[in-house]
Design a protein that fits this description.
Blueprint: E1 5-10, E2 21-26, E3 34-44, H1 46-53, E4 69-77, E5 88-91, E6 106-110, E7 114-116, H2 123-143, E8 151-154, H3 160-171, E9 175-180, H4 183-192, E10 196-199, H5 205-216, E11 219-224, H6 231-234, E12 238-246, H7 258-262, E13 267-270, H8 278-294, E14 301-305, H9 310-321, E15 331-334
Parallel strand pairs: 8-9, 8-11, 9-10, 11-12, 12-13, 14-15
Antiparallel strand pairs: 1-2, 3-4, 3-6, 3-15, 4-5, 5-7
Helix pairs in contact: 2-3, 2-8
Amino acid sequence: MSEGQMRAAWFSETGPPEVIRSGFLPVPVPGPRQVLVRVEAAALNPIDTYIRAGAVRFPLPTPYIPGCDLAGSVVAAGPQCELQVGDRVWGSNQGLFGRQGTFSEFCAVDQQWLYPLPDSVSAKQAAAGALVGITAHLGLFLHAGLQAGETVFVNGGSGGVGSAVVQLAKAAGAQVITTAGSPEKARLCRQSGADHVILYRAENIDQRLPEIVSQTGPIHVWFETLRMPALDRCIPQMAMRGRIIFMAGRDSRPEFPLGPFYVRDLRAIGFAMFNASAEEQRQAATELNSMLADGRFRPAVGAEFSIADAAQAHLLQEQKTIRNESSIHGKILILPGMI
């Protein structure tokens, strides 16, 4: 590696995971309100695979470095920055709207998308919890207005967003119902704070969920993480003026039982994390920092890859998210220091 070069993963055209290359690119120069972060850990999210496949279209620089999440330390700062060299930081929202991503040794990031990394929190933890934690927080509090004592249902409580929803909802004083695909994942859900876990492969959800609701009372917030929601299952279990949160399923066209929906005064709310303003995301990150520091939010790491193996990481994410062929629990990380 020559001076001014960094290891990075990138692609120049969309397609399958094999389009991802790795090697050396120039180290970016931070702008006036940007800092240069030495990336210690980056996390892979489903949105990264959708962008790479061309299913979600953003303006992409060429070559394009994927990745939304990062954690590391500031090594250079623009003249208009409050952050200083040596500050430990984490953040998300990179690789979107024409911004370069995080699968590289260094990343130039606008300071509005970065947050202080508590001393007791590792870079791996922060990267693993970045996008999923902010997404869960925005959905539960900004959009659903969750209150203590309410009941939350989340599909897939051991997944990235699902696990964050379980932990954040429980910390806020809610009762939490979730689903899991195996006894081991059910155990992980309970460790995260779930009060009731439905084993969807072994139990009949349409029978088991009403049984649980008869104990907990109706559901105030239904947080849907699946790409194909079952609204005939969801709506009859909702409390008056309950809120149904959608954050996945771009191609989904579910049947909508309008009558049971409107007679309960229900709300259906769709949101995408990257539409939230920098200030809204910072408010979420500030609360997540407190929860990371005291252990109320514990993001899990499921696999670690080097920059050179970024294509394999993308393939594993697709197997997990789209094909449901992987039993991996926890986030997939890219570690620039791993050779």
